[in-house]
Amino acid sequence: MKDFINAYSWINIHYLLQGLWITVVVSLASIAGSYVIGSVLGIIRYVNIKVISPLVGLVIDIIRNLPLLLIIFFTYFGLPNLGFRPSSVWATILAMVVFESTMIAEIVRSGIIAVDPGQMEGARANGLTYVQALRKIILPQAMKKMIPALVSQFISLIKDTSLATIIVLPDLMHNAQIVYGQNSTYILPMFLMLAIMYFIVCYALSLVSRSLEKRMG
Amino acid sequence: MKKLFRLVSVIISSLALLVVLSACGSKALSAQNVVTRAKQSNTITWGVKADTKLFGLMDVKNGQIKGFEVDLAKAMTKQILGPKGKADFVQVTSSTRMPLLKNGNIDAIMATMTITPEREKQVDFTRSYFDAGQSLLVKKGSSVKNVKDLNKKGATVLGVVGSNSVQNVAKFAPKAKVLQLSDYAQAMTALRSGQGEALTTDNGILAGMAVENPGYVLVGGSFTKEPYGIAVNKGQTEFKADLNDALTKVEESGEYNKILKKWFGNVPGLNYKGMER
Amino acid sequence: MIAIFHNYGGLLLQGFGQTLLCSVIALFFSLIIGSMFAIFETTPIKFLRVIARIYIEVFRNIPLLVITMFFFVVIPMFVAKISGFAAGTIGLTIYTSAFIAETVRAGIQSVDPGQMEGARANGLSFWQAMRYIVLPQAFRYVIPPLGNQFINLVKNSSVLAFVAGFDLMYQGNVIASDSLSTMSTYVCIGILYLIITLPLSYWMRYLEKKLA
To answer: What per-residue string of b and e applies to A170-209 under the rule 16 or more CB within 10 Å gives b?
Structure first.
């Protein structure tokens, strides 16, 4: 009990909250970036443009099937070879955007496919152009279908930022490790707090998604 | 029809191409002259440890790294760039420091790194700024008294990925199994949770751990000599010369001894007077 | 790159083997545990449903790294010594089983409820109906998503690198810090992961199309 009281001193909690802040900021930036790029890639893959779509498809499949940890190493160690010196925050965001965009592209593509193909034909028959039909008829329906998959992908993204401790991103996991690394009686309290903080953030997001589904459904 | 998408994809692919081309145009950071770049940006980026008490340890209160090496790096930066020169610190571990330097994420490594012939093939070292020796940390009352006690089947020694001391274990206790953790905090945690009988690395680092973790003691004296040097990339001869100069000036001004006393003045069993310069 | 394969072939092979081994072990146990909780979720017994809900929500919302480090760091302090490989495999099993439970539950619920009622009307108990009628149909339906879970499992097994689990990623870090050709080492590691995941991923897409 004494360990817990000491471990949860304001200094330590404050340090953890700083880490949580980094986790949230990095996650939000990555979610925004990968949502935009992933949607574009997913649509490119769906509309099947000669040469480009299969090429995009191949790149997506390769990146999607690699561990995120490896992508993190690539951006962190690779960028200086191209003349940039990334901070661990930017390296993580870049890695996250690259990796998650491919995951989201898959979700978007299968979301569009899941919309009845007859809809497209009907819209075209009613005089809409291909792009109009896609934008006005297909995508809004696909969006609704995609929400659960997208949200669980975003939750994965938040959890996976913890992997970036390996390139010393000062996130929640990293800061907790620093705290318990300096005093091992703090190990158990720190793990409990880690679980609680991650759970709150991720569970809150899944609750939001559920209410969103209800409202749209 | 599909024009919009064709347009979008053309834009994306040309952007990608642009990034690649501009990247090819600019030189890899590790190949640029560090001194020129440091003077332009008025900053030297150092790789230091953040999990090693006395050398470089993260201060939870303000999120800054503090220790002997950090203070020495600051003093040397001021010698090279003038009193307004800025020292940036990137947290490294034994396994990440070499890749970080080689790829250009950092300019120099000052992270309890022993000068060895093996490493000198890969990087250039300044002259030694601290003389350490490898030792063992065990639980108080452990049957392990020196490195020979570990030379048996079933013994597990804990170390850190990429550290010199791990390779030394193979020399002094070839029968022991070695577990390489990612940093010293992890290694200490592993020792506490009984993943191995002993943790091995340099005495200065272990002294810091023994201070932090009562119930664990240094045993067996030091069985190797480990002079610490600052590592820079091959070909950075100007930077290396500047660093050696700066080290000499810091030593002559008495600043070195002040920093040494600040960090090692109160460590039981460590005679810092003998290490003064 | 060829030099990496040539000089460190043994280590790479060992890492490849460990990665496969821990993925297969974790898949086996997470299938059992995941199906168990999926059945709990569909039983009429409220207590079991609550237990399953808590298990799934907790472990789906905590990072794999936290679970794995818990077994590597905390459990040895209070219970018993666990190797990095075991800690990693246990962490992967618990984490993945929560996802598999969700997948299998969706599969069970996709089977027409009339089937269960019909089976019960014909005198089968809930468990018998589940075992002989519902689960076999559900599994056919969930094979593609399960395959994708396995791919995730293989990728997630890189978490063993954090706990000295001697897997592919751990060996990658060791080789990178030894050879100092960071990028080509990680390219080699990437290729080895793709050898496992890429064919699986295409196979699953094919199955999805066939079943749909």
So the answer is: bbbbbbbbbbbbbbbebbbbbbebbbebbbebbbebbeeb
Report CB contact under 8 Å: C66, A160. Answer: no
Contact B9 A182 (CB under 8 A): no
| Cβ neighbours for B1, distance < 8 A, ≥ 6 positions apart | A129, A130, A131
Q: Is residue C77 within 8 angstroms of chain B, CB to CB?
A: yes
> What Å distances lie between residue A197 and A202, A203, B109, B221, CA to CA?
9, 10, 35, 44
Residues C148 and C204 sit within 8 Å (Cβ to Cβ): yes
Q: CA dist C60 to A29, B82, C14, C113, Å? A: 22, 53, 30, 27
Q: Residues B212-244: pLDDT tens digits?
A: 788 888 888 788 888 999 999 999 999 999 999
| Chain A interface test: which of B1, B2, B61, B62 (most A C-beta within 10 Å) | B2
Per-residue model confidence as pLDDT tens digits over A50-106: 888 899 999 999 999 999 999 999 999 988 888 888 899 999 999 999 999 999 999
What are the pLDDT digits (tens) for C75-89? Answer: 888 888 788 999 999
Q: Name every residue in C having a CB less than 8 A away from some CB of A.
A: 57-58, 60-66, 69-70, 73-74, 77, 151, 155-159, 161-162, 169, 172, 182-183, 186, 189-190, 193-194, 197-198, 201-202
Nearest to C108 by CA among C132, C149, C139: C139
Q: Please name the residues between 88 and 107 in chain B that touch chain C, using a CB distance below 8 Å.
A: 94-96, 98-99, 102-103
Among C66, C161, C201, select the one facing A173 at the smallest CB separation. C66
List the domain range (segments joined by +) for residue C47. 18-166
Domains of chain B and CATH, by start? 29-131+228-275 (3.40.190.10), 134-224 (3.40.190.10)
Residue type, A66: L
Which tens digit of pLDDT belongs to each residue from A110-122? 899 888 788 888 8
Architecture of domain A2-216: Orthogonal Bundle (1.10)
Residue with tokens 């010698």: B79
CB atoms within 10 A of CB B267: 17
Structure tokens at B163: 């550290």
Of the segments A16-25, B185-194, C117-126, C176-185, which one has the largest average pLDDT value?
A16-25
Residue from the list C66, C172, C198 with its beta carbon closest to the beta carbon of A61: C198
